[in-house]
Amino acid sequence: MKLTELICNLDYESIRSGKDADIKDIQFDSRKVTDGSVFVAIKGTASDGHDYIGAAVKSGAVAVVYDDASRGGEIDGSVTAILVKDSSIALARLASDYFGNPSQKVTLVGVTGTNGKTTTATLLYQMFRKLGHKAGLLSTVINYIDDEAVEATHTTPDPLELNGLLAKMVERGCEYVFMEVSSHSVVQNRIAYLDFDGALFTNITRDHIDYHGTFDNYLAAKKAFFDGLKKSAFAITNIDDKNGLVMLQNTAAKRMTYSTRAMADFRGKILEESFDGMLISVNDTEVNVPFIGRFNVYNLLAVYGAAVELGVEHLQALTVLSSLKAVSGRFETLHAPKGYTAIVDYAHTPDALDNVLATINELRESRREKGTLISIVGCGGNRDKGKRPMMAQSAVRASDKVIITSDNPRKEDPQAIIDDMLAGLNDEQMKNVIVIADRRQAIKTACMMADKGDVILVAGKGHENYQIIGDVKHHFDDHEEIKACF
Predict the structure, then answer these.
(1) Is 92 inside a domain boundary?
(2) Are residues 294 and 361 in the same domain?
(3) Is residue 13 part of a domain?
(4) Number of domains making up the chain
(5) What band does 212 get if pLDDT is binned at 50, 70 and 90?
(6) Integer Cα distance of 448 and 485 in angstroms
(7) 326 falls within a domain
(8) Radius of gyration of the chain measured on its C-alpha atoms
């Protein structure tokens, strides 16, 4: 692709043209620039790409896209200098055009919300594959190009990786793509210029306040995704969430709702439940599913609603729904030879932890012998400190015994994170709490304490097979640790 061809759709403020050139690639990391690259200088949270314009030119960049007008003088005269209003939006435009606007060649559905994004997107991917379609998945856990697994590095990748993956999906014949849409990706314009055919909202509770600053900013980021939908798209929201209808306020898309408590387009109700699955009613039809908990009923309703909107017949959608499999690390149940049950779940927000614990306790109430519930909970470092005492309170309120431990401490002192959690507990609550900073030892201790009929919840990391200490990812998998104890 020629440079003039690449930038023909770019909305720029000014351009100082060098010679036209063949474009090898687009980069926003100066370290990856080579001869024939277009370098896009973006102001990030940790560094400013404008500081690396000189390095990019020296490495062979033939054009520089930038949004800080004061830095234009640093660009060599032989290189095309393109001043834009917002470099992050320009990157999304260039990435989409460079890869041939792949999102326009598939049916693209995005899922956003605090909890449930991964499960909902993954189950939609599973469903459409089972229906005989080639499909793609972009998720926190893993990406799929039809049946090819591709490692996931972010909930929503950057525009270059995102459009590159979509282009590969188009090349492989994928008809549908289901993707998680994070609040970060909306604010950072990673999903700009993607052609969405549908959007799902799961729920919203406190999360990522360290990045967004306030809950209102976080809510606005989610809503902006729906505000940008085209008229021919559909928007499905959870009206049991108090902010569910906010998502539909200004969208041009077709508006649909789901609920377990009120009248909605897609309605669900739990009829029977055990640790092995549920019998639920969906729009007055009963179906057995291998999932547990009211929160999963919401996920399944979102999947069902999207499938129906995409043309799947009602009974066919429910038949496939009954055969889907749980996502790794989402209320994943392991049964010990000793007779107790261990549950691994990604719950890392107070609301998610409340939901998982409520589900476990509902199931325990239905058993003759309730047993003891032991919860292992931690909080990530360099993230929202405000939720730490709330996480401890949620665990203590709904558990018989709680072990406070480490999650991903990152660059914080693990004990300091634990102290923030303990600050939310009084002396009476502390009587049922044990502090074990080493996560491996915390899991071992819980397994040693557990007897037949007891339940252990290991919360916070779910599918993750690593623990981040400092800047280093160390291999650590809750599943492996539990099985080693078995």
Answers:
(1) no
(2) no
(3) yes
(4) 3
(5) low
(6) 8
(7) no
(8) 24
pLDDT range class, residue 400, cuts 50, 70, 90? very high
Flag whether pLDDT at 278 surpasses 80. yes
Q: Are residues 121 and 70 in the same domain?
A: no
DSSP H helices, 30-158, are 53-58, 87-98, 117-130
Separation of alpha carbons 321 and 290, rounded Å: 9
CB 95 within 8 A of CB 6: no
The CA-based angle 200-288-197, given to 5 degrees, is 20
Residue where a domain stops, chosen among 87, 109, 129: 87
Ordered DSSP codes for 215-274: HHHHHHHHHHHHHT--TTSEEEEETTSTTTGGGGTT--SEEEEEESSS--SEEEEEEEEE
pLDDT on residue 77: 86
Q: What is the pLDDT of residue 215?
A: 85
Last residue of a domain, one of 272, 302, 321: 321
What tokens does 340 get? 């107790």
Residue 220 has pLDDT above 60, yes or no: yes
Give the pLDDT confidence score for residue 221 in this predicted structure: 92
What are the angstrom distances between the C-alpha of 336 and each of 346, 454, 463, 482?
A: 20, 10, 19, 9
pLDDT of residue 368 exceeding 80, the answer is no
Sign of the C-alpha dihedral, residues 140, 145, 147, 153? Answer: negative
Secondary structure (3-state) at 91: helix
Are residues 131 and 153 located together in one domain of the fold? yes
Residue 118 is part of which domain span?
A: 99-321
